[in-house]
Amino acid sequence: MIGQAILEGALAGVILSVFVGPIFFTMLQLGVEHGFRAAFALALGQWVSDLLYIFLAFWGAIWVEEIIADEVKQATFVWYSGTIGGCLLILFGAGLLLTKSVSTAVSDKIEIAEHKVSKAAYFAYFFQGFLINTINPTPLLFWMGLMAFAINSNYIGGATAALYIAVMSVVIIADCLKIYLAKTIRDKLKAQHFLYVRRLAGLVLGGFGLVLLLKVTVL
């Protein structure tokens, strides 16, 4: 049973990893502008948020079942988290659209030294990743749905833990590969390209926020 749980968790991790959400474009923007460690700090915030949700789902299985089974409770959760999350994503997107990357003001042959990023900035990136992932209802619904799957599959104890560990392992490996790819792309870009990446990330974040806000308030 544990072996089956690992395989199913790995598959779920692949599905979650290929989903292109707002965190992906933020990770790309940070990786291109500030290098591996800045994007890794953002990804670390996302992973901590995921672990928090896993804890809630793992130790609150009854609560998870109640929310999934009750359409009213699920709709209420989605409305609150979607409204708050949509507004914050729009603000994050606007921030990227209205500000310039420090790299665009230097020269065409830009060298972005990772050691110039302050500890406070790394903490801000970590918090940004944590916040973007936490305010988005999709990750929590995914982890709750995974718990519902484990319950329906009669997974107990070690099998359920193996399922979650497999998912997170694949997600972490995939995110590290994405960050490395962004760092590799960075070495091939000129200074003005950094601004394009920043604007793209801002548009995508704002777009995700607007769609999320409209989905829970209008549609």
UniProtKB/TrEMBL annotation:
UniProt xrefs under Pfam families:
LysE
Give UniProt keywords alphabetically.
Cell membrane, Membrane, Transmembrane, Transmembrane helix
Q: Where in the cell is it found?
A: Cell membrane
Query: Cellular component per GO?
Result: plasma membrane
What GO annotations for molecular function exist for this entry? amino acid transmembrane transporter activity
Q: InterPro entries from the xrefs? A: LeuE-type
Q: Which residues cross the membrane?
A: 6-28, 40-62, 77-99, 120-143, 155-180, 200-218
Its record classes its membrane topology as: Multi-pass membrane protein
The name of this protein is LysE family transporter
Look up and give the organism this protein is from. Aureispira anguillae
Q: What is the lineage of its organism?
A: Bacteria, Pseudomonadati, Bacteroidota, Saprospiria, Saprospirales
